[in-house]
């Protein structure tokens, strides 16, 4: 680990404003000012403002959104805009989460557009990549994550690439209780780091945090964080309980 670790909570479709207020009160009481790690919350868009307001006195903690539409504005009923997310205090945007790709059919072409839009809005994109179990068993993991990474970077210049974060989230590990071993994670994070380096050079590539996600919990967080090239954690289910999440953040 060479970077300040990034520990991110993806609340998915959980925690409305009322729950979020109670969560933050309990969480903040247990977690003093954090200088040696970056903590990020990804609440639902409806809960975003509650979380940014609840963290007004803790500017070291970042808030992000789980998704934005591929266009900044227009006739897109029900969607959320990157500009509105920024206006509401979001600093980072998840792109290509496996649930977006596999439940909502988000394509590589869509992630290309979203990554460009987020870079233009000067927000940080956290691009998620990961293989399905069938792809892993067929030996295609490296090809899949390299393809997803290339699509995400397609429209970005080197400076914009240097400002992103990446998350390796094997689809078979998300919400299943099956976690990649630290060795599995290190292997694929190494693949991603080399792919970044071949695009933007070693110096920029080493500064891009690569998070691991997939059934991270209090018991396995430290071991995964200690793996080579693992610069942080993206946590779903285990980030929903304030006490448990405080434990992971302090891991
Ligand atoms: C996620 O949603 O990004 C995730 C990793 O979920 P979980 O921790 O529940 O597997």
From TrEMBL:
One of the entry's Gene Ontology molecular-function terms is: triose-phosphate isomerase activity
Record key words, sorted: Cytoplasm, Gluconeogenesis, Glycolysis, Isomerase
- Coarse class of the protein's main subcellular location: cytoplasm
The first-level EC class reads: isomerase
Q: In which pathway does it act?
A: Carbohydrate biosynthesis; gluconeogenesis; Carbohydrate degradation; glycolysis; D-glyceraldehyde 3-phosphate from glycerone phosphate: step 1/1
**Which cellular compartments is it found in?**
Cytoplasm
Q: Which residues form a coiled coil?
A: none
Q: Which InterPro entries match?
A: Aldolase_TIM (IPR013785), TIM_sf (IPR035990), TrioseP_Isoase_bac/euk (IPR022896), Triosephosphate_isomerase (IPR000652), Triosephosphate_isomerase_AS (IPR020861)
Q: Note one Pfam family from the annotation.
A: TIM
Q: Which reaction does it catalyse?
A: D-glyceraldehyde 3-phosphate = dihydroxyacetone phosphate
Role summary: Involved in the gluconeogenesis. Catalyzes stereospecifically the conversion of dihydroxyacetone phosphate (DHAP) to D-glyceraldehyde-3-phosphate (G3P).
This chain belongs to which protein, by name? Triosephosphate isomerase
- Specify the species: Gemmatimonas aurantiaca (strain DSM 14586 / JCM 11422 / NBRC 100505 / T-27)
High-level lineage: Bacteria, Pseudomonadati, Gemmatimonadota, Gemmatimonadia, Gemmatimonadales
């Amino acid at each position: 680990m060479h970077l300040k670790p990034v520990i991110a909570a993806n609340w998915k479709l959980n925690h409305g404003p009322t729950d979020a207020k109670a969560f933050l009160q309990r969480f903040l009481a247990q977690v003093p000012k954090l200088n040696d790690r970056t903590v990020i919350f990804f609440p639902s868009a409806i809960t975003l403002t509650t979380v940014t307001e609840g963290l007004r006195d803790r500017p070291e903690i970042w808030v992000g959104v789980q998704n934005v539409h591929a266009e900044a504005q227009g006739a897109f009923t029900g969607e959320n805009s990157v500009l509105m997310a920024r206006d509401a205090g979001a600093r980072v945007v998840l792109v290509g989460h496996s649930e977006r790709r596999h439940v909502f059919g988000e394509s590589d072409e869509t992630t290309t557009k979203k990554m460009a839009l987020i870079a233009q809005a000067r927000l940080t994109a956290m691009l998620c990549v990961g293989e399905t179990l069938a792809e892993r068993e067929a030996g295609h993991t490296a090809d899949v994550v390299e393809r997803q990474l290339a699509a995400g970077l397609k429209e970005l210049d080197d400076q914009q690439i240097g400002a992103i974060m990446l998350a390796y989230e094997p689809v078979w590990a998300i919400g299943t209780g099956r976690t990649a071993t630290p060795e599995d994670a290190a292997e694929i994070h190494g693949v991603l780091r080399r792919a970044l380096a071949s695009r933007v050079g070693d110096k920029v590539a080493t500064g891009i945090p690569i998070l691991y996600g997939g059934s991270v919990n209090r018991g396995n967080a430290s071991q995964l964080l200690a793996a080579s090239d693992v610069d942080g954690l993206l946590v779903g289910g285990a980030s929903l309980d304030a006490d448990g999440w405080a434990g992971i953040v302090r891991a």
